[in-house]
Write a structure and sequence with these properties.
Elements (H helix, E strand, L loop, with lengths): L19 H9 L5 H12 L9 H8 L3 H10 L5 H15 L3 H7 L2 H4 L4 H22 L2 H12 L4 E6 L4 H14 L3 E3 L4 H9 L5 E6 L6 H12 L3 E7 L11 E5 L11 H18 L1 H16 L4
Parallel strand pairs: 1-2, 1-3, 3-4, 4-5
Helix pairs in contact: 2-3, 2-4, 3-4, 8-13, 9-13, 10-13
Amino acid sequence: MAAEGEASGADTAGRTAPGGVAESIRRRLGECTPAERKVARVLLAAYPSAGFETVARVAERAGVSAPTVIRFAHRLGYRGFPDFQRALRDELEQREASPVALYTATGFAERGGSPAAELLESSVASLTAALRATCAALPPEDLQGAVDLLADPRRRVLLTGGRFSGLHARYLGLHLVQIRDDVELLPEGAVERTAALARGGRRDVLAVFDFRRYEPALLEPARLVAGRGGKVVLVTDGWLSPISAVADVVLPCQAPATTPYDSLVPALAVTEAVVTGVLGALGEAAQEHMRRGEDTARTLGLY
């Protein structure tokens, strides 16, 4: 984590650190003046493209002076607005990194094959570091916000994810259906997905999993739910999916790349923490729901 008084979005080398510029802005909002908060909202509303506009244009859109924009960049720990924009460019490179690019960037090609014992040791070390970084950077109030929304029996819970992260959405959904009603994994088919979303409204909460090389097809359902007054819970990586701009709760998972593939273990750990929280929040109602499910399964000969 960043040292006291140091922006979490930039490290000492001037490169974007996991957690990203958007996350740095979110974390510093409470320290900002009212005018600086206007700048922050403009930058987050059209992130990251708004950050590449001129100081004058950002100031105009925020309704503040140009010096306020520069002071805001200083607030985040950057030397000025050009330094802020360099951090954004660096972050974009990392956000769009493919497994092919990471194969070279992580030095995986040079390391070659590792003996099984060495592979196990390095895996434990990297995964432990990722889990610790995720837990350290995840504010308890954000985790509680996700639990509160997903445990609210008045809400319909919808879940979706990407090519790989969709497995996490299904995993969360399989737990939630055992402990509460009105849980639905968004279908993949266009007709079925449209029907599920068409009957939504303010009582919906969409839990969406989206990780770098973010999938555009996940953004529109999130915008739709948010636009109707529903709630969006986003589980993403440290660089933040574009969905973070409309999400009510963002749960970032830190997984520095050590191989061509980003680890989803931290996201699984966060998912299980959410499940445990929802189970605790529902209490006896969850226990009774589980009991009915077990009884039904035995009647059907499934267990």
